[in-house]
Amino acid sequence: MADTSSALADATSPASGGRRPRHLPLVLVLGSLTALGPLTIDLYLPALPRVSTDLGVSQAVTQLTLTAFMVGIALGQLVIGPLSDTLGRRRPLLIGLSVYVAAGALCALAPDPAVLVGMRSVQGLAGAAGIVIARAVVRDLYDGLGAARLLSSLMLVSGTAPILAPVLGAQLLRLTSWRGVFVTLTLLGLAVLAATAALLPETLPPPERRQGGLPATLRTMRDLVRDRSFTGYLLTGSLGFAALFAYIAGSSFTLQEIYGASPQTYSLLFGLNSLGMVATGRLNGTFLLGRYPSHRVLATGLTVLVAAGAALVLLVTATHAGLPWIAPALFLTACPVGMILPTTTALSLQRAPRAAGSASALLGTTQFLMGALAPALAGLGGRSTALPMAVSVLGLAVAAAGCFLVLCRPWRTAPDPLAR
Known about the structure:
Growth Hormone, Chain: A, mainly alpha, 420 residues
């Protein structure tokens, strides 16, 4: 298939001819924007039982506050991403962060479950602005290798959120109620809003914005999905992300109830695996990309992920291996995602230099939807076996590798797409 990125626009020099922000403030601001969504989920998790008790509802009703946020953050990206291609990045981003702050304050004051669920949905819709626009800003400012390296650097900031948030949330609950957790999230949102307003200029000048309204947006998304390589990178990254979520969803029960890990040991292993993923992302951006072709780096990450999934299945079914064997396999499941996600994101955005918001929206929504399906797959076998988690990781990893081979056809791509 012909390179449809040429139909959308040429991928030549970094977009936005204006002043480029300094690197460190840019990484901190964009990393904070990317981390705000996951932080809003993970900081709140330890408070779920208290919400249920305080509002007098079942745990299932309380779980709806998480579902509402996840649905909101998935759908919000589909709206805000294309909107930023038309209006520029800064205005939708600042409005989204402002609504996020207001919704967080209303969550803290919610008198009943209906208001809390509704405001969590609004919080997710608004919080999507940070995730989808941060990726688009990277594409505005950098091409190819530069974009891939910056996306890898963002994992140093955004990747720490899942590590620290549950611990911080538990400590907050020692000092305050679940409403105090939402006050904390509101204050964090205000800090990110202030930093964004002060440090992040507009990166999409008016001459480079897309016109034509909703019909043009739908045509752009249609063209992107028809682009074989874009769809290949999109599915490869999303399926790899889903494999990570299958591990996250299944590991708590698997390690503690089947393999006997204490909560402290589980927390230590979870944090170690998250640090491994962040470190791999850093290695990916500073050493691998630029020295080796991006498709080779991506193929290596996928190979490790498939091997880790296969090792999990083998350990669960064919041996009586204990925690010292299972833990390294889970570590190797998390680490390659630090290579897969930044690389596939950069390769996808490279295909749409003048439609980065729409491309970012498709990326984010697909990742969140596939990630939301992974826990259901990992829990199919009930509480007596770790096999569903292991099979889910392996199946999703093989599907990611298959999409890469069939749709991206890496052996036909020369030169390196990120070296253009």
